[in-house]
Amino acid sequence: MNFNLFAAEEQAIEKARKLGEALAVAAPDCAADFEELVEAFQRSTREQRRLVRVSDRLQAQLGAANQELERRRQEAETALAHLREAQEAIIQAEKLASLGALVAGVAHEINTPVGIAVSCASHLADATRELRRLSDDGTISRGDFARYLATAGDTATLILTNCQRAAQLITGFKQVAVDRASAERRRFNLSKTLQETLASLQPKLRPSGHTVTVLCPADVELDSFPGVLSQILANLVMNALTHAFPDGRAGRLTLAVELSDVNMVRLSFADDGVGMSEDNRLRVFEPFFTTRRGHGGTGLGLHIVHNLVVGALKGSITVDSAIGTGTRFVLLFPRQTPERD
């Protein structure tokens, strides 16, 4: 193939040689100079051929390098896709674990009113059997009957009150669980959703003695995703319990809501814990970054919070913290979430 590139040069050299032979006869004085000229042209042609061979070799090497680069690129894209799938699976597992903690909270909170109702029902049953025995023996008195009526009234009131309390807890927890599982958009009262979420977290908060203060107007209505907001709040609380109070002391958590304007909500979550360094503050939303690995930290809680605030609520989140001054997260998001693309 390369020789075809120099066909014209070969023909020119051949003609030059014939011309040189004729010139050697007709003009011997010019023949030597002409021969040198032909030799120079031949050297130039040989050099061009060498350069073409080098170019072909370099092109072949470049082609092989491009193929290897394409193979490596495909491998990197495949590895990245697998990494994203694994990360998504871990995040979903974290969400399910949070939902499992909610279920445990439901059982713990409902246990108290249900236990009281069962005890009262048992006491009322015993009093009823005793009254029936007295009636069967014919020894019942007005005092016995009056005492039974008082007992029945008190226990019935306790049973009704505690059953209503259990029903309220079940309704609240059910709504929180449904919201988290379905991520359904609906209109909801912000204060009520925050209270329901915090109620589900009481089994985690109560043993450590932490107090939670909620400052939220009672009439703030949102058109958004209550399950997402509940997940965000739960992750912020659990993050505070894991990192803000490593010494086990009781702390104070403050949740404050205000309307920055008619369409935007500003929600701040603060603790009075140990705080964090500037280096940690800058990395706090990175996936799998944690200072408590092996002690309850997975490095995904705040990463999930950031993704939910930015992705689902179409808002923003910032963090302000320093060693010894506690930590404050500030969320800013619209009251009516824009339609997803």
Describe the protein.
The protein is α+β, with helices and mostly antiparallel strands. Among the domains are: about 70 residues; about 160 residues, Histidine kinase-like ATPase, C-terminal domain (Heat Shock Protein 90, 2-Layer Sandwich). About 65% of the residues lie in helices and about 15% in strands. It is built from 9 helices and 7 strands, in the order ααααβααββαββααββ. It has a 5-stranded mixed beta sheet, covered by helices on one side. A two-stranded antiparallel ribbon has the order 1-3. A hairpin with a 5-residue loop joins strand 6 and strand 7. Helix 4 crosses helix 7 and helix 5 packs across helix 7. Its EC number is 2.7.13.3. GO terms for molecular function: protein histidine kinase activity. It comes from Azospirillum griseum.
Question: What brief labels describe this structure?
Answer:
single chain, about 350 residues, alpha+beta, Heat Shock Protein 90, two-stranded antiparallel sheet, 9 helices, 7 strands, about 65% helix, rod-shaped, HATPase_dom
How are the SSEs ordered, and which strands pair?
Blueprint: H1 2-5, H2 7-26, H3 28-137, H4 142-182, E1 186-189, H5 190-200, H6 202-205, E2 211-215, E3 221-224, H7 226-244, E4 252-261, E5 264-271, H8 278-283, H9 301-312, E6 316-321, E7 327-334
Parallel strand pairs: 2-4
Antiparallel strand pairs: 1-3, 4-5, 5-7, 6-7
Helix pairs in contact: 2-3, 3-4, 4-5, 4-7, 5-7, 7-9
InterPro entries: HATPase_C_sf, HATPase_dom, His_kinase_dom, Sig_transdc_His_kin-like_C
EC number: 2.7.13.3
Keywords: Coiled coil, Kinase, Transferase
